[in-house]
What we know:
Chain B: Pfam families: DUF2160. The complex is a heterodimer. Chain A has a domain at about 65-250: MetI-like (MetI-like fold). Helices cover about 75% and strands about 0% of the residues of chain A. Chain A is built from 12 helices and 2 strands; from the N terminus they run H-E-E-H-H-H-H-H-H-H-H-H-H-H. Chain A has a two-stranded antiparallel sheet with strand order 1-2. In chain A, helix 3 packs antiparallel against helix 9, helix 4 packs across helix 7 and helix 7 (about 150-175) packs across helix 9 (about 195-220). Chain B is mostly helical. Chain B has 2 domains: about 1-30; about 35-90. Chain B has a two-stranded antiparallel sheet with strand order 1-2. At the A-B interface, helix 1, helix 2 and helix 12 of A face helix 1 and helix 2 of B.
Amino acid sequence: MNKTVNQKAWFLVLPVLVLVAFSAVIPLMTVVNYSVQDTFGNNVFFWNGIRWFEEMLADERMWNALGRQLVFSSIILAIEVPLGILVALSMPKRGFWASFCLVVMSLPLLIPWNVVGTIWQIFGRIDIGLLGYTLDAIGIDYNYTQDFYAAWITVVVMDVWHWTSLVALLAYAGLQSIPDAYYQAAKIDQASRWAVFRYIELPKMAGVLMIAILLRFMDSFMIYTEPFVVTGGGPGNATTFLSIDLVKMALGQFDLGPAAAFSIMYFLVILLISWVFYTVMTNLDKRDAKG
Amino acid sequence: MSWMAWTWPTAAFFAVIALLLVTFSILAIRFPETPRRGILRIETTRGDRLFITLLGSAFINLIWLGLGLGPQYWALVVCLVYAAAVFRFV
């Protein structure tokens, strides 16, 4: 039978193309245009060439924010991924409690970012917050507005509280797709719990875990609202992550040129990392399909 | 269009990228290809190699600028060599 080739289906992609053009491509082009010019407002621009890029690349402030950002993303990935897997492994497989756990796990995901920030900001206060008051009462010196470590711990714990469920739910979906026969075979071979995890569960979860890691990396790399609400980037610059720094520069100081150059480099880093993740993911899929 | 603050160099930059995309689309339609595996051990098509070239070129330019290695057009020469290598070996 001859297959008919019909390329007209491509027209169905048009609405998405238009949407992406207006929401991403045109703004990005504008940012590129800003990055080579200087402005004092009134839509009047002066050509500045690649000097903003030069300035930003030599700017310690940007490198420090990037360093903090990478440390933050690494910490939350190192906590959320193993913790999410652990939670998924200990969730019941079927019945009422399985549904109950799923609903409870999804609750933090439904809360908007700024509300999460506000919850933790109040939670951690020494005068009225449950966490802050309790820690203070048992003699632990905790003040996230003044202490570097307290601020970092608060921001990290807040992110873990907000997003571990996502990793857990994805890992749980991966676990649910493993047929019982695998476990029965493992039982016959008298495999240890660790061997079951290492050779059955982990390989079967690899695909969804990659998606979880990608999503968590991207989100944490672009995090803005929660630390902004809780610490405002402080104390000093302790929790000033890339996007907080970027907003300060673009909107606070109205340095559109440097901020645009900064955004483009930020975008390129995200693009590179997403591409690496995407490539690894699709290659894993292909390997699975073959094997 | 004035709010987009266009300049000739940036317009030319985007025109070149648009032209590359159109050229590669036409090439893909005229001369369909099967993905191949190169030194990165991943399957790539011409479009993938173009993406790797463009993204890599952006980083080459930034590294060149950041390390102050000289006039920027030399970075473009390095990019061309890089592009040739990507299309040959990746």
